[in-house]
Every structure is written in C-alpha cells, then in structure tokens.
From TrEMBL:
Gene3D superfamilies (UniProt xref): Flagellar protein FliS
UniProt source species: Caminibacter pacificus
Keywords assigned: Bacterial flagellum biogenesis, Cell projection, Chaperone, Cilium, Cytoplasm, Flagellum
Name of this protein: Flagellar export chaperone FliS
Entry-linked CDD domains: FliS
Compartments (UniProt record): Cytoplasm, Cytosol
Gene Ontology CC: cytosol
InterPro entries given in the database record: FliS, FliS_sf
Keyword rRNA-binding appears in the UniProt entry: no
GO BP of this protein: bacterial-type flagellum assembly; bacterial-type flagellum-dependent cell motility
Length: 123
C-alpha cells in the first residue's frame, strides 16, 4: 500500500469516528475479535496465525496503555494500566505455552471492558 493510500484510509476511518469514546470501543472490539482468532489458532495448532493474532491483540493493549492520561484519569488510569499490562502477560504466556486458557482470561476481561465502556459512555 502506498503512503497516499494509507493516509486516505486513515483519514476515512478517522472521519467516521465521531467521538474518541467510539475509538476506544473499536479498539476493545478489535482486540476481542483477534483474541478469539488467536484462541482458535492455538486449538488448531496453527502457530503462524496464533502469533499473528496475539501480536495484534498485544499491539492494541500497548496502544491503550500509551493513550492513558494519568493526570486526568487518576486511579482509573492506573488501574487500567495494570489491567492492560496483565493482559499482555497472559498473551505472552498463551504464545509461549500454547494454552487457550490464557486467551480465555483475556477474552473475559475484554468482554467486561466492552460492557463497562458502553455503559459508561452510552454507546
């Protein structure tokens, strides 16, 4: 993909997001989708897909960590930082040990985050 095509795609997505709250929801939902794919890949013994999807979920959690505002967010930001970091640990264990149970924990947390975010933001 050329730089201009990538920039146009980004701008289209960016323009379709009305509120920053929607972007967070999209990140949570994307992480959930990729976590489900990673679990399936582990169950099927598909190492290439397992690694690909675990990296995608990990990158989303890293982006979520980087977006935290500790001054404005206070205790909630610190809590989320720890929660996201723990999810990264679970993903690393799932990758190293090929245990879908770790992914199950990540999926459970993501579902809870999605539900709480929707309730909090009214999305």
């Amino acid at each position: 993909m050329t730089y201009n095509k990538a920039l146009n795609s980004y701008n289209q997505i960016n323009n379709s997001i009305e509120k920053p709250e929607k972007l967070i929801l999209m990140l949570y939902e994307g992480a959930l989708r990729f976590a489900v794919f990673a679990k399936k890949a582990i169950q099927e013994g598909n190492i290439e897909d397992k690694v690909k999807y675990i990296i995608k979920v990990s990158n989303i959690f890293i982006e979520l960590i980087n977006s935290l505002d500790f001054e404005k967010g206070g205790d909630i930001a610190y809590y989320l930082n720890g929660l996201y970091a723990y999810q990264l640990e679970l993903l690393a264990k799932a990758n190293a040990e090929n245990k879908p149970e770790y992914i199950d924990d990540v999926i459970r947390v993501l579902k809870g985050l999605i539900e709480a975010w929707k309730e909090e933001t009214g999305l």
